[in-house]
Design a protein that fits this description.
Elements: H1 2-14, E1 30-35, E2 39-46, H2 54-67, E3 73-80, E4 95-103, H3 110-124, E5 128-132, H4 140-144, E6 152-153, E7 156-157, E8 160-162, E9 165-169, H5 184-196, E10 203-209, H6 216-224, E11 229-234, H7 238-253, E12 258-269, E13 276-277, H8 284-291, E14 296-302, H9 304-311, H10 315-318, H11 322-345
Parallel strand pairs: 2-3, 4-10, 4-11, 5-9, 5-10, 11-12, 12-14
Antiparallel strand pairs: 1-2, 6-7, 8-9, 12-13
Helix pairs in contact: 3-11, 5-6
The structure holds adenosine-5'-diphosphate.
């Protein structure tokens, strides 16, 4: 039996941790491994950054253990792994992955997808912050039903919290119906303050809702911090896709990697008859993604509940809808997979100490 366990451990050690791409054996993440001839029990340490992909990682572990044994039962349990967060960029953010959500033009559901991404990542168990950088039309407070004025304590802007998600938005600083005119340097200053002077705490993911189209904020961001990448939201029509391609080219020019495309308002499933109507078309973004060799992250159908609930500040309730939540979960997993694949492909520094 000890021979069997040694073999199992050797194979398990080769599996790669989703966050770092390092073999589990090299990072001491195998906390326990027992095999009594018919059942395997194992406990693996996993960081909260990897929580959104925990289910598929569990499957991979189970597959590996079954392939190397005749066990009838395999039980995999994850225990928390605290991994120190190296300060990010010149502002020294305590964030592991910064995700920008952009689009070629307004009205395609970019803010809705950005907020849903943050909510779904948080629901999966990750520590998440949400920064509304759409300074021309800050809609995150409205979608989440948040209001109030951020206080400044010890020189740090205190974000407004949605449950345990810190949120910052120009919408908290100006009245909802007021237009703000931005000059380039002011814009740069506002984004710098949002990033550097906000008390974000320690985060796995900071989701940034970008303004549509323009490149100045993307440029400011890319100069301040290394971004994990950008998610580009578009609708299925050809004209919208052309704008999305422009947004992708803008991100590429500012050296922000593109994690992939999301097709929003992709078809409508009639709640009465269950029939699908492709009002704006369907599948255009997937085809375009293939054509320009960008990952396709998933699609969200037109959904009345999503529109109604987010208009009254209750986006979270809309995500309880099974169609919306399944769609968002697929997008979250695909996004995290892209981030993880990129992390695994970058050369490894010395292994971080496991505390
Ligand atoms: P953007 O940030 O691109 O300007 P928003 O996220 O503010 O777009 O969304 C614009 C409008 O479209 C909002 O009223 C929002 O509720 C609605 N909306 C977004 N996605 C969907 C969807 N999948 N189904 C129905 N309504 C949606």
């Amino acid at each position: 039996m000890s021979q069997d366990i040694a073999t199992l451990r050797a194979h398990l050690s080769e599996l790669k941790d989703p966050e770092t791409g390092r073999p589990l054996g090299s990072t001491q993440q195998i906390e326990q491994l027992d095999y009594n001839g018919s059942a395997i029990e194992c406990r693996i340490k996993l960081s909260t950054h990897s929580r959104p992909v925990a289910d598929e990682f569990r499957e991979r572990i189970e597959e590996c253990l079954r392939a190397q044994s005749t066990a009838e039962q395999v039980r995999v349990e994850f225990t928390p792994l605290e991994r120190p967060i190296p300060p990010l960029g010149q502002v020294g953010l305590s964030v592991k992955s910064v995700i920008a959500v952009g689009s070629g033009k307004g009205g395609v559901g970019k803010s809705t997808i950005a907020a849903s991404l943050a909510l779904s990542l948080s629901k999966a168990g990750s520590r998440v912050g949400l920064m509304d950088a759409d300074v021309y039309g800050p809609s995150i407070p409205h979608l989440l039903g948040l209001s109030g004025r951020p206080e400044v304590i010890n020189g740090k802007i205190q974000p407004i919290y949605f449950e345990n998600i810190p949120v910052i938005s120009m919408g908290f600083m100006v009245q909802e119906d007021q237009a703000v005119i931005w000059r380039g340097p002011m814009l740069h200053g506002a984004i710098t303050q949002f990033l550097r002077d906000t008390y974000w705490g320690s985060l796995d993911y900071l989701v940034i809702d970008m303004p549509p189209g323009t490149g100045d904020i993307a440029l400011t961001l890319s100069q301040m911090i290394p971004l994990a990448g950008a998610v580009v939201v578009c609708t299925p029509q050809q004209v919208a896709l052309l704008d999305a391609v422009k947004a992708i080219s803008m991100f590429r020019k500012t050296k922000i990697p593109v994690l992939g495309i999301v097709e929003n308002m992709s078809g409508f499933i009639c709640p009465d008859c269950g029939k699908r109507y492709d009002i704006f078309g369907h599948g255009g973004a997937r085809e375009k993604a293939e054509e320009i060799e960008v990952p396709f992250l998933g699609e969200v159908p037109l959904n009345m509940q999503l529109r109604q609930e987010s208009d009254v500040g209750n986006l979270k309730a809309a995500l309880d809808d099974p169609i919306c939540s399944a769609a968002m979960n697929r997008i979250v997993r695909a996004t995290c997979r892209q981030i993880n694949d990129r992390a695994a492909a970058t050369p490894h520094g010395p292994a971080l100490p496991v505390l």
